[in-house]
Design brief:
The structure is a homodimer. By secondary structure, the first copy, chain A, is of the alpha+beta class. Chain A folds into 2 domains: 146 residues, PurM-like, N-terminal domain (60s Ribosomal Protein L30, Chain: A, 2-Layer Sandwich), CATH 3.30.1330.10; 169 residues, Alpha-Beta Complex (Phosphoribosyl-aminoimidazole Synthetase, Chain A, domain 2). In chain A, 32% of the residues lie in helices and 23% in strands. In chain A, helix 2 runs parallel beside helix 3. The interface between A and B is large, with 81 and 80 residues. Chains A, B: One of its GO terms (molecular function) is magnesium ion binding. Chains A, B: Belongs to the thiamine-monophosphate kinase family. Chains A, B: It catalyses: thiamine phosphate + ATP = thiamine diphosphate + ADP. Chains A, B: Catalyzes the ATP-dependent phosphorylation of thiamine-monophosphate (TMP) to form thiamine-pyrophosphate (TPP), the active form of vitamin B1. Chains A, B: Keywords: ATP-binding, Kinase, Magnesium, Metal-binding, Nucleotide-binding, Thiamine biosynthesis, Transferase.
């Protein structure tokens, strides 16, 4: 669906030429970035704060489909996915390293697009690209990003701190990224059948953007700081709510009760899910890739939180023996199971 | 050449099961590793020291050939390559994150072998695996590692500090890894032609190990500390001496003179290179993958260094306008050009 007009071969520049070309527009923004790209290692200084490190790998054909993913969006999303992990620790993200592998089917212009999306995300979230690696690949596009940030020790929120009675909160709304993906996949099939038919995504911008251009929730981390609320546990939603709440309850040695009617689902997500014959609740629980924050707070913090329209309280933490339960709108009780997207069972090649 | 007998499918475990399985034997060794695997991000504390971060990506078919690379060696080498970058900053390596992508042709046992090599390297070099990512791949094996370390600010050695008159030093010997690779490639061709012929690597252990199982030179960093010598510049040799010395002189805005007769080349490397019709000097200059340290020292430090048999002084730094020159054994002068292994021109797929 996307065409490239100009085309410069990467081999013309070589690895060092390419790195120089891509990194020449980087301006270091963070005081903690002492030395960025250009030496054997970057040098950082967190001045007594704790350093936070997270890493994610994105592979073509597994995590993204270039048939409907513009490279600039992909670059943006690749950074977001990684920053999200730092925010999920209640920390500030300050640096990333970016490693790229790509075959010669990618022109310099294509890689520039990808990198432009990364730079845009870094610019917006005040993050420095401080290093990386580029190599050719016999396969498809390979993206590996490590994100780095910091926090005061007393601010860090782990997955294992949830206590009985804590309220379970989630930012934004759920399921949109998954339903957006269904839409893009359908239009891809239509396009493959007849390349003259233009994709019909009209009025679906919101859920398409949820899939292609998620935004990591730094604003929630800022809000929590402003409200002086320190969550007792936190995780970002990459694999789906069900999978993530189970990480929290398993590591906290607790159980949970979640109410279906409380799950935040955007009307367009619900409507589009139904048009695909999908249950919106299942999309919210197991769709994944929403990159919202899931966290637990003490009941004492409820009054502070209840007026924020962008945070939903969806249930509470129970004792471990009570298990992990979903209470449906009809009042039925189901065990919550992780049916999140599993990169190992979804592909058999 | 390598056969797997037992075979467990990864899909049986799923991503989280696999991560649990691989990481259950990790015991955190460094005081700076506050929280390792198991949350959104790892938490580190460098207590006022500077943090060092480096990253490398290794792709099947580009950086390694599984036809002659045992997975355990590959895991070991993948860690070494990354630690080497931290040592090249004159720092101590303390943590790594490990991201792996692999297709379903890899069994659990195969991934365990790879991971065992990584754990062995980390054990030996006192490094903690603190995080990572695992995913399926449609392609081959993908390995992305980020290494983390620390140093006092006053100890960090960059590439840009070489001064006119400084002596150029290199640890160990050069070219062995490249010649070892030629040997392995030849035996692979023999094997492909007739699988009944056993590989003939007898007596070639040293150069085969240089290729398959390099050792990062932490001992040189320790030695420099003991001798109270702080190099004026340093880099590790991954792409070949020629390419690396040009990084130093370009970033230091200087030139250099290197003497062919001073290049440290192991007799087995020289002899085997000649049997392939290769010039040992070219192998030393452009072969790459030796993971030795190349550094410059002040002339005043010469007396301290001259007795170390594992460090060769191969030339000196000149003013920039004098260029980068190799003085051959016959007394001829050649410009040094980076003809190191280039991942973008070596593959056209």
């Amino acid at each position: 669906m996307f065409e490239q007009t100009d085309r410069t071969e990467i081999a013309k520049l070589g690895e060092f030429g390419l790195i120089d070309h891509l990194t020449k527009h980087i301006h270091i923004k963070n005081e903690s970035s002492i030395k960025g790209v250009g030496d054997d290692a970057a040098v950082l200084d967190f001045k007594g704060k704790k350093a936070l490190i997270s890493t994610d790998m994105l592979l073509e054909g597994i995590h993204f489909d270039l048939a409907f993913t513009p490279l600039k969006h992909l670059g943006y999303k690749a950074i977001m996915v990684n920053l999200s992990d730092i925010y999920a620790m209640n920390g500030m993200a300050t640096q990333v390293t970016v490693s790229l592998g790509f075959s010669s089917k990618f022109s310099l212009e294509a890689i520039e697009e990808l990198y432009a999306g990364m730079l845009l995300a870094c610019e917006k979230f005040n993050v420095d690209i401080i290093g990386g690696d580029t190599t050719s690949s016999r396969q498809g596009l390979v993206i590996s990003i490590t994100s780095i940030g910091y926090a005061d020790e007393s601010d860090i929120v782990y997955r294992n701190g949830a206590e009985e009675g804590d309220l379970i909160c989630v930012s934004g709304d759920l399921g949109g990224a998954y339903v957006g993906l269904q839409l893009l996949e359908r239009e891809k099939q239509v396009f493959l059948t007849n390349p003259n038919i233009q994709p019909d995504l009209e009025g679906k911008d919101y859920i398409v953007e949820r899939q292609l251009k998620p935004e990591a929730r730094i604003d929630i981390v800022d809000l929590l700081k402003k409200l002086k609320i320190k969550p007792t546990s936190m995780i970002d939603i990459s694999d789906g709510l069900a999978s993530e709440i189970l990480h929290i309850t398993r590591q906290s040695k607790k159980g949970c009760k979640i109410y279906e009617e409380k799950l935040p689902i955007d009307p367009m997500t619900a409507e589009t899910a139904l048009s695909f014959g999908l249950d919106p609740t299942v999309c919210a629980l197991s769709g994944g890739e929403d990159y919202e924050l899931l966290f637990t707070i003490k009941q004492a913090d409820y009054d502070q939180m209840k007026h924020d329209v962008d945070i939903s309280i969806i249930g509470y933490i129970t004792e471990e023996s009570a298990g992990n339960q979903l209470i449906t709108k009809a009042g039925n009780v189901h065990d919550i199971k992780a049916q999140g997207w599993n990169a190992f069972t979804s592909t058999q090649s």
